[in-house]
Amino acid sequence: MFDAYSRYYDLLYQDKDYAAEVAYVDALLQRHGIGGRELLEFGSGTGRHGRLLAERAYRVTGIERSAAMVARAQPSPGFQCLAGDIRTVQLGRTFDAVLSLFHVVSYQVGNADVQAVFARAAEHLLAGGLFVFDVWYSPAVLAQRPAVRIKRLAADGLEITRLAEPHLLPNANRVDVNYTLFARDTATGAVATFTESHPMRHFSLPELDLLAEAAGFERLGAEAFLTGAPPGEDTWGLCLVLRKT
Ligand SMILES: C[S@@+](CC[C@H](N)C(=O)[O-])C[C@H]1O[C@@H](n2cnc3c(N)ncnc32)[C@H](O)[C@@H]1O
Fold first, then answer.
1. Separation CA 100–CA 80 (nearest Å)
2. Distance of alpha carbon 231 from the chain centroid
3. Tens digits of per-residue pLDDT, 135-165?
4. Domains of the chain by range and CATH?
């Protein structure tokens, strides 16, 4: 997963407002007294959040499973990306906060996977440190239901069409998003096609509270990612703020 997709990742999300997201996360961290400190980022992708956070004086270590994404995550002063799996990573040191942004925790679909990620976050935090992440929120997923989506864009000599076809597994709190991507080279007319399936889990608050408590966290906040609104049936991306007790 993400290896074929990674080639087009930054193009597909060129309109995603990473700067606004980083401003939101920075404000959140500052509110809890950890502005400009040491961060561990789970599932750091191509490093867009990490590099922007480093520009705000944080020191960020990203952990990323896809070798192709790691290869695209250019290091910058204050940001580095290491290859690793967030279910098993053991860096042998602690941080002021663990971040996991853009639904990375929702990619952990099995109970053991999510429990392992919460445990690894706790192990890498100082007492009182924060675990901040966003996930698909069950009330919104079930109320709105994922739909087939088509995304088209043109950039860097490519015309890209991405088809996203969701398949709901209601008893597993899971949606398998089946992507088909067509990339047409505008100079040669050659079309590359590939498919990838991204299994996504959605979570309810009581479920997240159980996971948090079992891993030694207390919940400080739960709100719509980016807007800070109270969570509800229109909150697809729920932001959780947990503190290691
Ligand atoms: C939607 S992308 C988000 C990337 C980045 N956080 C961003 O906002 O652009 C999800 C990322 O999580 C990574 N990922 C998912 N499960 C992982 C795991 N168990 N260990 C490490 N990385 C993982 C994927 O490889 C992918 O790069």
1. 15
2. 18
3. 999 999 999 999 999 999 998 899 999 999 9
4. 6-137+202-244 (3.40.50.150), 140-201 (2.20.130.10)
The string of pLDDT tens digits covering residues 157-211 is: 999 999 999 999 999 999 999 999 999 999 999 999 999 999 999 999 999 999 9
Q: Is residue 199 within 6 Å of ligand 1 at its C-beta?
A: no
Please tell me whether residue 180 adopts helix, strand or coil conformation.
Answer: strand
Q: Report whether residue 240 contacts ligand 1, using a CB cutoff of 6 Å.
A: no
| 53 in contact with ligand 1, CB cutoff 6 A | no
- The model's pTM: 0.96
CA distance 65 to 14: 22
Length of the chain: 245
Closest CA to 240 of 118, 132, 113: 132
Tokens of 82: 């290491």
Per the CB < 8 A criterion, the answer to whether 219 and 212 are in contact is yes
